[in-house]
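HOLO CASE FILE
Compound: S-adenosylmethionine
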Amino acid sequence: MKIDAISIFPEFFDVLGLSLLGKAQDQKIIGFEAHDLRKWTSDKHRTVDDSPYGGGAGMVMKPEPWGDAFDEIFPKGQRPTIIFTTPAGIPFTQKLAADLATRSHLVFACGRYEGIDQRVVEHAGAQAEVLEVSIGDYVLNGGEVAAIAMIEAICRLIPGVIGNAESLIEESHNSGLLEYPSYTKPASWRGLEVPEILLSGHHAEIEKWRNEQSLLRTKANRPDLLAE
Ligand code: SAM
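Model generated. Tokens follow.
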């Protein structure tokens, strides 16, 4: 999969060179490139923002650098998927991550200030599949951290990125529930014991206990998931 990210702080994406995503890049499973939006500015100050039409606080990202960036980054004759990071977008979920993991080319557009001129989103629709996506009901200073979270969630679902693909099956949100609690050695630690059933070696009983724990945890932490 090819992934591009456009930002005025491309250095944020250096973290993608670490750990499993770094390895996936070394192995050419993922090709990642971060671009500095200011590359596509033409004035002395490399301006990317201006005051909002209609008034109000803050600045809005100008459309011209974005349009020029897309013209250069979007391959001719192909239709990549562009993800505009925005708290006003559709929620990012495991289901959406799995869907995006099947694409061949993702482009992440990272806003700053009050966001990007909305015509950029409309315009991109002529050249790409367009999604406006939020990582949660809160507001960050910029789209970089949101894009990194999405890239990690998407890429770990691409075959070959995670060593043991089986570990993806029982995870939270895969079946609509949260995962059961996990324990490792020692069996006794600071007066706290690992649940007896996990030491029994009785696989059917362990599975039953895990299913119950999964339901109890979902009910306690995310009752909205049970309602769904
Ligand atoms: N004025 C915008 C609003 O109220 O919807 C918020 C702008 S925010 C300060 C600046 C940028 O951070 C956004 O353009 C977006 O790229 C990013 N951002 C902030 N919160 C986000 C979230 N929850 N999910 C995805 N991106 C987010």
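CASE NOTES: The mean pLDDT is 96. The longest helix spans residues 203-221.
CLOSED: yes
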